[in-house]
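I am hoping you can look over what I have pasted underneath with an eye to the fold:
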Amino acid sequence: MKKIIIITTMLLVFFTAEAEIRQALGVDQRVDYPGLVKFGPWDDRNYAITKSDFDLIPNKDQYLANVPAFFKITMRKEMPHLGEFYPRSTYQLFQIRHGGLLQDGKWMKSARGAAWHKGDDPNGKGVPPVVKLGGPDLIPDVEFTLDSALSGNEVSVEFNPTNPLIGVAGSNRSGGQTMYYTQDGGLTWTRSQVNPSSCCDPTIDWSSDGSKVYQADLSSAIGVRWAVSNDQGQTWGPMQVLTPNGSDKEFIHVDRSLTSPYTDNVYLTYHNGNVMQFARSIDMGVSFETPMAFSGEPTGIGSDITTDAAGIIYYVYPSLASATGIRLLKSTDGGVTFATGTMIAALNGRFDFPIPAMEDREVFIYVSADVDMSGGPNDGRIYVSWTDETDDSAGGGNGSAANNHGWIEVYYSDDQGSNWTRMPHPHETSDGLTVDRFHPWLKVAENGVVHIGYYDTRHSTNRTGVDFYYNSSVDGETWLGEQRFSTVTSTNLPDGQEWGDYNGLSVVLDRLAMTWTDNRPGNGKAAIAGSVTNPTGAPSYGLSLENPDILLCDGMTDVTANLNISSLLGFNNNVTLSVSSSPSISSNESFSVNPVTPPGTSVFEFDVSGGSSGDYILAIQGTASDGNGGNIVRSVDLNIGYNTTAPAMPTQISPANGATLVASDSVTFDWSALPEAREYVIEIATDVAFNNIVYSETVDSNTTTVLATLNSSTEYFWSVRGQNACAGGPNSVIFNFTTAPLPGDCPANLVTKSVVSFDFENGAEGWTSGVNSGADTWTLSNANPAPGGSVQHWHVDDQGSVSDTYLTSPVISLPAGQSPLSFHFMNYQEMEDDGNSQCWDGGILEVSENAGPFVQVDNSLLGTDPYDGPFRTGTLQGSLAWCGDPQSYLNSIVDIDSFAGNDVQFRFRVLTDTSVSHPGWDIDNIKINGCYTDLIFEHGFEQP
């Protein structure tokens, strides 16, 4: 423990030696200002910290060697969910907002800070490539500096899966995330853009056909965004917001398997306050669905996503729990649901740990994952790689840089993540006391070869500098031998970002590219892209089924399955097809073409009969000469769902027959599982005869959830049946249920009727404005009409001075016996908030009953638009109000049933503070609705 204290003290001296900290300058003498260096380097803006600010810092606050205390407090105010660890992007955000440390009045801008606070050159270009000759190591054809003197790091790279000459890279550099593209296999790169208002964390992937490339970043507010390019990364569509702020460490992945039910789904992983998050796009990046939070799973950071040929999602991340480990979250339905997480392997470290080459930012523990989809002997194998502390390090992220050591771990699973095997380290381990390896990136090529790149300190002095190294595994069990890839050793980087958090590697056919941060003498800190001919990219072929899953019934003949035999790197040797494993139900097997010269196709034909219902696998094998005296063997499985009879009738479970108040936005249907059913068809109708079917779906399990499809306050009827290849089974009995009313709805047996309405097209319609203080700016306007046809509406300014104004309705007599009564209004809000769920300026709704005083309508009565937060100042300080920038037009619905039978007036009231004006508040289409018995049943018209 003494060693830890000594090292920490040395770091504090390094950052504060030139700063004179004077207690008397602090605004709150209850704060020990010199003591704030326990939390980070000194910054003169720490003098503004109050005791209440200081109390936001936890007792065991994570020390950040490059972020001062005042900014850590800012982060905790903006992210109240923040846990033990700050986002890895905290340092970048500090530079973006403040430029760098302020000590003794001197502003010490970092490179990123200078870029953000002194302008940027959007047209800058990388230096010309330096071509290298071959040598004993894996020497790149080129080491291209993407942007010189701009502190590039955390460089991602992905090549087009259909064309190894085309690639896209992204760099976290001082001016923001920067994107590049190549059209010559990585020999040269061109900058396409600096993402506007961006921070960092570039991540890239391609669509299955290579027509689209996706990128994601963190904005300058630390929110997740994405963009799509339709021209190979030369230009990009707008950055679209997934999360506005509070997120970190996002990675993107595209399901490119042509046999997946979810081909071209786009997936994003990230964390909010170390709670892991997931989002998906099912429309090729046009939009993303509402993200999913894994709140019940251990917290973590540094995740990755990969998918297999069947579209199964493997979401992998290092946990931050007391018993840290690499965790797996798995989805078999394209990301709709995930199974409870499981452990892949335990960790020695936790979050990060210092070594001499990463003494300040520290080595980040993250994962890199990929799946073998080659059709070879390891087809379907999942690989996961990460950095960890060696067994003889302090562990848990503790210990000094001098006493810690890093190595690379690689694990694999051959059973879809149920069990895991540890591979040998992809590097020498006997020199672990003198060499560190860290920050790997892993990819599996089309031929099943595993490629990995990482930092290695062996050529530096006392483990302080780095080279980039490479290794590969052909058999998935052993490594061919580590090879130096960078040609010059990079010296130690003393800045707070150092080498960043991760690197990049991409391999497509005969091209291999790797990206890293470089600090070789004379080059300065820069993002480097190196590319080379793939050393294991020999010509080969691929074997796949057009549809690997098939449902069959006893007695079917001439069943067909289409085989595709693709050519990799010009392979054209004959491929001989055979059945290597055949189930007992199969007979009369044949291939329409055999052998096949790639690229080519063949139709496999067979009959099925006998046996019992169940799942069977028929294995098809391809064998071809590799041209060197050996054979290349590929195999593919045909998964047969076999039945001998049609399914029986299912029994419904929920919603129960006659169920009421069923939530319409999410209805889960359950029924009994049938042994013979391969899938089920569920139908929902508004009539018992099923003449008006509003929902029909075929599902493969005995449950389904219907989202945002059914109306509220409506009676529905539902039925389900099982089916298989033999036939469809009988329909179940018919159940009915009624959905719950939403705010403003009438129950299912009543109809809605307007009590009174105001659209202001003909004037004020009895509404009047007034003031308690300040200027009355309520006016009828046509400037910002609500959707739906009406144009004229009420508008009030959010003034830049103190004001308290209101708009009052005429007296309205509310009827009795027409419950529930509801008050509706369309409104657009753009009033000043503080960015932290409180209001500097804001609006409220008040009501007066029977000429009594006006009182604020309670938040519990606001059905669709609750108040945004309390007033920070003014006569209503602490009271809830609407505010924000902006809220587009929303139909706000208020429960006023408690006022039924009385005379009421409603009042919209706006209060503003001493400064900062905003556009204000627009209000239109006000109405009060009640509920009536359907008129056809009044006055005796009902049937006897």
